[in-house]
Design goal:
Length: about 350
Amino acid sequence: MIFRLLLLAACGAVSLAGAPADPPPARPEDTPATATGPTPAVKPEDTPAQEAEDTPAADEKPAAEPAPAGRPVADWTEAQIELHRRGFSCGSIDGVPGPQSAAALLAFQHSAGLRETGGLDEATKGSLLITDPVFTTHTFTAEELGRRKPAPETWLEKSQRTELYYATALELVAELYHASPRFIERLNPDFKWEEILPGAKVKVPAVAPFTTTHVASRIHVRLADHVLEVTDAAGGVILHCPVSIARMVEKRPVGELAVTVLIPNPDYTFDPEVFPESPEAKELGRKLIIPPGPNNPVGLAWIGLDRTGYGIHGTPDPEKVGRTESHGCFRLANWDAVALLAIAWVGLPVVVEP
């Protein structure tokens, strides 16, 4: 189903229209804030018969927990890759320590009960173990290469496309593997990016879309730190990532919000009234439907909130997340927005902190 986003007040929230054969999704104002998430699994203490069967005899010693296999991370490249695997996103993987990497490491250290330094001290290295290969290979397919097309400059031209796919092969692999394009180029110094044929291979960080068995209990957005975190019922961090916030202070909705709708791969309605600084918007004088894709203005995911015009979404410019500001929404790298979409649920509380 292709969904439609109507940008209203801040940066975009939402008027949804599904395919004609499907029932229309609930509007934000129709969605009860008390909706609950996934039904928790039955806890062991609720099944005494099974517990009795699994309890070892008095003279039988329980098997010891196996020690985690692996080795300590060696440098910031390995640390960034392993942090991404565990849900502590440091923005684009680039092998260079910086504020976003330090924030992700601080979140990991807090979660692991370590001294919170934001640095790769020996205790942190010993806890952040590498258990899988650091790098892998991406093989380009004919389908990937055939869909590449530079994004148009104007809103009108964008609205005339059927999708806004990756503009280049470099952009594609950088985003798929959570890395900066410059880092991918450094990993593949002799690769001819302008002469790619199907079957060509490049070296990339070994990361995959983040998954977890933990149930999200709350989203926290810390405006001063430009950080978004998801916690479980016990307060443990499930997901940590950088976030861009509204440029204007009055458009930063401090307080309690809730998720109202979850939309993968959304399209987007360009409203000239929201972009008064755009000469093209003034000339157009009408709304335009911008098709889905990673280079869509809201990227690959939309998590709508119970305040008109507000949501959490992806972006076509992951390198700018946490470093530039938005019209009002909370903007994540596409890989983080997709990870959040997978664990969020309608009614999930969102706490926006100063």
